[in-house]
Target: DUF1059 domain-containing protein
Amino acid sequence: MTLKLRCEDYGFECEYILDEEKTLGLIEKLRNHFEEEHGIDYTIEAVTQMITNRGHSLESIKK
Model:
C-alpha cells in the first residue's frame, strides 16, 4: 500500500509530493525535504506525528 504525502498539506507553499510504499524511509525522505528545502530540522518523531495528525495510523507504516 502506498502513501501520498504532499508538502503543501504540512503548511508549505511547495509542490513536492512523495507517493511510495508506507515505510519509515518515506518519513525520512519527507523529513530530509523539510530540512533541505525549507530549513526546518524536524525529528523523525515530529514528522511521524505530523503524518498521524493528517489521519494516517502509525500502525499502517511498516518498519
In short: The CA atoms of residues 10 and 34 lie 10 Å apart.
